[in-house]
Design a protein that fits this description.
The structure holds 2 protein chains of 2 kinds. Chain A is built from 10 helices and 10 strands. By secondary structure, chain A is α/β, with parallel strands linked by helices. Chain A has a domain of about 170 residues: Rossmann fold, CATH 3.40.50.300. Chain B has a single domain, classed as MetI-like fold (Orthogonal Bundle), CATH 1.10.3720.10. The two termini of chain B are about 45 Å apart. Classes of the chains: A alpha/beta, B mainly alpha. Bound molecules: adenosine-5'-triphosphate and magnesium ion.
């Protein structure tokens, strides 16, 4: 059984059709990259998966159970098992790093303080941020903030991570550190759905790349096939533009 | 190697320094003195000055009435402090009600919107009269019937409407990403407010709230229309008895002594807050 199953997902913002009958299933330990032009619905698709936005039609299942099932709704379990990281980090500016990380475990999932902090420190150590537990977000570089945001999303030990253009706001020299974390996570078997404009990274890390165009997944293939031998003319056109922009 | 001795500032340079640094200060001090002196002479030499002086600036009258006015002023400040605390809390509750989304909370949200619209639309004086005279007149058993109490309630209700809007603007200024992050972590609406939104929003609106507190510091004198013996009322009583207005000047001085430092403090906090924001956005 797939980890995540999306069937016939349709989503409107007002009159505008943003996701058009999208179906996609993601296996456990699989890393799927979503690519596509700006406005094609990549972020919206991610946000549907962890119930940040509501959708109009279709069904999304985690381990065969609808994300709207009472099992998830009544227990916050969905938020525990699916973590999301945003382009703009969205760390809580008035809380230090350790508070940011332990907030959800402590107050949503009732993990004792000491235990939550111990696990946070373990993650901070792992990602070489151990000196920054008491720092505030504004005292960190963008790359460090983004790494803290990833740790915050991992603090509830989720089985799925959703990453939405997590390097788009970073200076080039900071991107590497963040991407290497994602590679580590992949090695450890984390199931991930990644929106990225870094085609080189997508090629490296993805098991499968899906190309979204105007709310539809019009091509889906392993990176070596999709990048070197795209079948759909629109995919070809998109990749052509990326190459011209020097991003691949 | 040519070593250069630090050269003494030449007299020309010193001269320029004097001109640039001290001259503007000296000129402004002198001009202020000259202008105020001119105004003073004009006032003092006016035909009516002796009458004005006797009516408004009679030192012995001021000294005579001062203890009573001061006691009244103590009441003003007591009402002020209690009101501030009540307003800060009640307005926060209103702002939270107003921020709720979802069908379950609709009644609270509508209550808050109607409350704020009504109370911002009415003159505070009218509310003070309505509550301060109206409610005690009902003689409802169990309720306090002091004018001060009900007048104070009226002031708190009116100012809370303004303060709630201040809180709301602060909450709306928090970036949507913070809400998205809170929701994605599984925080409930109340938890998101408590942990993520309010601490940041409140910090951002402290300067605006302080400015409301400065305005309130004067408006507590509205209680005098209820016959409450605050500073203004005491001064009026003296005026009615002696036909001398110096007592009102005594009250005015007391208010100034309290409000000017408070306003300066509010300005200072506002400036610090702006500096902090500049640093963050860099
Ligand atoms: N909250 C919203 N309200 C209304 N329309 C929205 C909202 N969020 C997104 N949209 C619209 O939905 C469409 C898809 O947006 P989405 O953010 O999913 O695109 P994206 O593929 O992530 O683009 P980008 O690469 O620029 O991040 C866009 O046309 C956008 O204008
Ligand atoms: Mg996006």
């Amino acid at each position: 059984m797939a980890k995540i199953t999306i069937q016939n997902l349709t989503k409107y913002f007002g009159e505008k059709l943003v996701l058009d009958n999208v179906s996609l299933s993601i296996e456990e330990h699989e890393v799927v990259c979503l690519i596509g032009a700006s406005g094609s619905g990549k972020s919206t698709l991610l946000r549907c998966i962890n119930d940040l936005v509501e959708f109009d039609k279709g069904i999304i299942e985690l381990d065969g159970v609808s994300i709207h099932d009472d099992k998830f709704y009544k227990t916050n379990e969905l938020y525990k098992r699916i973590g999301i990281v945003f382009q703009s980090y969205n760390l809580f500016a008035h809380m230090n790093v350790i508070k940011n990380i332990t907030l959800a475990p402590r107050y949503v999932h009732n993990v004792p303080k000491a235990e939550a902090e111990a696990y946070a420190m373990e993650l901070l150590n792992l990602f070489e941020l151990d000196g920054y537990a008491k720092s505030y977000p504004e005292q960190l570089s963008g790359g460090q903030q983004q790494r803290v945001a990833i740790i915050r999303a991992m603090a509830t030990r989720p089985d799925v991570l959703l990453l939405d253009e997590i390097t788009a706001a970073l200076d080039p020299e900071l991107i590497g550190g963040v991407l290497s974390i994602v590679k580590d996570l992949r090695e450890n078997g984390m199931t991930m759905v990644i929106v990225s404009h870094e085609m080189g990274f997508a090629r490296d890390v993805a098991d499968r790349v899906c190309f979204l165009d105007q709310g539809k997944i019009i091509e889906s293939a392993p990176p070596e096939n999709l990048f070197s031998n795209p079948e759909n003319p629109r995919t070809r056109q998109f990749l052509q533009r990326i190459i011209e922009a020097g991003r691949m | 190697m040519i070593s250069q001795k630090p050269s003494q500032p030449s007299s020309g340079r010193r001269n320029r320094k004097f001109r640039e640094k001290y001259l503007p200060t000296i000129i402004s001090i002198l001009s202020v003195i000259v202008i105020f002196w001119a105004i003073r002479s004009a006032v003092i030499n006016a035909e009516q000055w002796p009458r004005i002086k006797a009516q408004f600036f009679d030192i012995s009258a001021i000294i005579e009435v001062f203890p009573k006015v001061l006691r009244g002023f103590g009441l003003n400040m007591l009402v002020w402090v209690i009101s501030i605390a009540s307003i800060a809390l009640w307005a926060l509750v209103l702002a939270i009600f107003r921020s709720f989304s979802g069908a379950w909370f609709a009644p609270l949200k509508i209550f808050s919107i109607v409350y704020i619209d009504l109370l911002r639309g009415l003159p505070t004086l009218l509310l003070v009269l309505l509550f301060g005279f109206g409610i005690p007149a009902l003689r409802i058993p169990g309720l306090p019937h002091h004018s001060v109490f009900w007048g104070g309630i009226a002031i708190v209700m009116a100012y809370s409407a303004y303060a709630a809007e201040v809180y709301r603007s602060g909450m709306e200024a928090i970036h949507d990403g913070q809400r998205a992050a809170a929701k994605s972590l599984g925080l409930s609406q109340m938890q998101a407010l408590r942990f993520a939104i309010l601490p940041q929003a409140i910090r951002n609106v402290v300067p605006s709230l302080l400015n409301l507190a400065v305005a309130l510091q004067k408006d507590v004198a509205l209680l005098s229309v209820l016959g409450v013996r605050d500073a203004v009322r005491e001064a009026q009583i003296y005026t009615a008895r002696t036909f001398n207005y110096s007592s009102l000047i005594a009250a005015a001085l007391l208010f100034l002594v309290a409000t000017i430092p408070m306003a300066r403090f509010a300005d200072y906090v506002t400036r610090k807050d702006q500096e902090r924001r500049l640093q963050i956005t860099r």
